[in-house]
Amino acid sequence: MDVVVVESPAKAKTINKYLGSNYKVLASFGHVRDLPAKDGSVRPDEDFAMSWEVDSPSSKRLSDIAKAVKDADGLILATDPDREGEAISWHVLEVLRQKKALKDKPVKRVVFNAITKQSVLDAMANPRDIDAPLVDAYLARRALDYLVGFTLSPVLWRKLPGARSAGRVQSVALRLVCDRESEIERFVREDYWLLSALLATPRLEEFEARLTAFEGKKLQKLDIKTKEQAGDIKAMLEGAAFRALSVEAKPTKRNPAPPFTTSTLQQAASSQLGFSASRTMQVAQRLYEGIDIGGETTGLITYMRTDGVQMAPEAISAARSAIGHEFGDRYLPEKPRYYSTKAKNAQEAHEAIRPTDFRRLPAQVRKYLDTDQARLYEIVWKRAIASQMQPAEIERTTVEIEARNGGRTAGLRAVGSVIRFDGFLAAYTEQKEEDAEDEESRRLPEIRSGEELSRKSVTVTQHTTEPPPRYSEASLIRKMEELGIGRPSTYAATLKTLEDRDYVTIDKRRLVPQAKGRLVTAFLESFFDRYVEYDFTAALEEKLDEISDGKLSWKDVLRDFWKDFSGHVDGIKELRVTDVLDALNEELAPLVFPPREDGSDPRICPKCGNGKLSLKLGKFGAFVGCSNYPECGFTRQLGEEVNGNGEPAAGVNGDKMLGKDPYTNEEIYLKSGRFGPYVQRGEGKDAKRSSLPKGWTPDTIDHEKALALLALPRDVGKHPESGKMISAGLGRYGPFVLHDGTYANLESIEDVFSIGLNRAVTVLAEKKSKFANGKGRAAPAALKELGEHPDDGGKITVRDGRYGPYVNWGKVNATLPKGKDPAAVTVEEALALIAEKAGKGGGKKAPARKAAAKKPAAKKTAKKEE
Known about the structure:
Blueprint: E1 2-6, H1 9-19, E2 23-27, E3 42-43, E4 49-50, H2 56-70, E5 74-77, H3 83-98, E6 107-109, H4 117-124, H5 132-159, H6 168-186, E7 191-200, E8 206-214, E9 217-218, H7 227-238, E10 241-254, H8 262-273, H9 277-289, E11 291-293, E12 296-298, H10 313-326, H11 362-365, H12 371-386, E13 392-405, E14 408-421, E15 452-464, H13 473-483, H14 488-500, E16 504-507, E17 510-513, H15 515-527, H16 534-548, H17 554-573, H18 577-587, H19 589-592, E18 613-618, E19 621-626, E20 635-637, E21 656-660, E22 667-673, E23 676-681, E24 688-691, H20 703-710, E25 714-718, E26 725-731, E27 734-739, E28 742-745, H21 749-754, H22 757-770, E29 782-788, E30 795-801, E31 804-809, E32 812-815, H23 827-839
Helix pairs in contact: 3-5, 5-16, 5-17, 6-14, 6-15, 8-12, 8-13, 9-12, 9-14, 15-18
């Protein structure tokens, strides 16, 4: 018997069925070792020696693999067919050698691009050795990421408190987003006018033509800059005679795009399905690993981390057969289409993403899939099938028109197109992310050269130039790929990291850089400019590709990088914080010091009038403050909305006088601080303050509400049993009632002001009934029960927690992917999430089914059995 090692348990079960009883397939649950998150894991002074660490769950799995290998005839490493997969196989092999589990047993490496029985059996028949250059490329990339992160991040923490960290690729991706925001801020809008005429042929068929020339001069988009100029041209056209000068009908062909790669799939899923990059990869992983189709689990698509655009010869034959059957022979080219990959490294350019079987039509497999899986499978199938179809035949017609009014002339153009044969468009049409009007898609009536045309109307429209749009995930991925930054298989993780660190947020599917992200980018551009340059990062990626192609030594690349990088970091360490702030004040001026309505110096303090505003660094990050501190206490949050005088939108320092406390005669203010709006009574350190509760906005706060907030906590009454006071208040986790150290949450802030003694006693009693000590939190009720765990027992449920819906199994809680409907979760999806969470050490194994009654204990031995 041979032991086969794959990554996921779902894949292990499927492959074990394919291979039979002569094989034992075990899962590594992804990576089994990693560099510890501490200094010294990569040691440049020891020729880049690396220390690897195995976490507890991986240690248990590796022990199981080692035990199985000791009793086996050989080891087959069948992890994914990419650099990360090669690295996992290498790690497993290294650990087994350290455990002396292999001895002289044969070790083989096999790769398959699809989890189908035929693909797996073909791979097993063609084993190879571990690809050493591919592993070297992994080691170089992992060492680089570690060295940049653990060398640069401490500098960032010291110079910019509140910043999280700076990764090698993430920092460059963040720079793209921030540079686009700066473009938008610098953009100056311009007004311009466009003119068009609604004309008719002698056969009374109407069409629209746009103005392209006037008085013998060709007009560009922005050439008509005033309303008066547009009005003059309109008057001329309204009195002009129109004639068709020429009509040109030009046939063109439009060829299909190649099948999906990782990045093009992410882009298409974003623009057509609204998926994030990470969601696309989650769904694709499930389609790749296998779906139960009528009692048989099989992969529906090929491996989804690839730069390749070519399909295997047998896949091309299958696609051509499906085209003839589903669309007809007219849609089938005489010869197959072949696409060349743009990937610079042939070793990592695998087959494109395609269906494993073109006979599985999207409509036929939909009943086995959830909504997201069905939609993603459909675009994969359609794009792959379209790549082998006939081109679309389009006739593009251009009509040049002359308008003459006395001695004045103008030129107009009408453009339209007709699809004479839809070709591949019958299967797949790429949808653009920005839906713009396409005048070429219009149909034109029959227009004859030289004939007179009648005018129906002339239209003038005013327009304003628009700044470039913020990046979406799709357009950022496209830009990163275009620049050669990172690799497609890492894009989803890169974008997720930026969002998790609060460097960017997603608003209406657009990436918006946050103040923290812009601060980090400005710091890196000011002091580490070379290492966030697009060309430098792309050149480093090329070197990593050359390592995996066996053309460069990985340690030579690390030595060259580290020599310059470490010296640069040592120089930055000596920088004073004032130097950093001066540079950031200049780099981020539009964000930190927005222009004022009266044109005055935006850095003059709006409160004291003579202090100078500057970035300041506090324990929780950067903010804007006055140089006259402590005499002047003006502050505002970095990136906070300000009015035309440079003050927070609520007033100077956010202060708004609400009235006086009737008992203390102290003034009550609505203020804006670094942590949001709050109300304050009095001045100084002892002033009473209260944050605004959730759902209350500054514009709704009046004197009465402020008094109510400042009066909290309020006494509700004495508990009838203990005689101790019950109070109601607003805390860090929302509204509550408190009695003798026991807190119970209230549903809304209004309950704090209105709750009576009887209701408070009931709420506290309900809390105590859930937990004996009254201090814990009850487990959320199950939204959906999925049944028992098929292997280890224990109920699997879907619950709604404080941070969103999750799958629960024993002590393992696995968060659902963003946007996933809790009611639509299947057992298979739940098991995959639980396995992934457990693989990361995210929870202990759930208790097994209740054991039988204990037998009487045996007599203790002198030595504990190991």
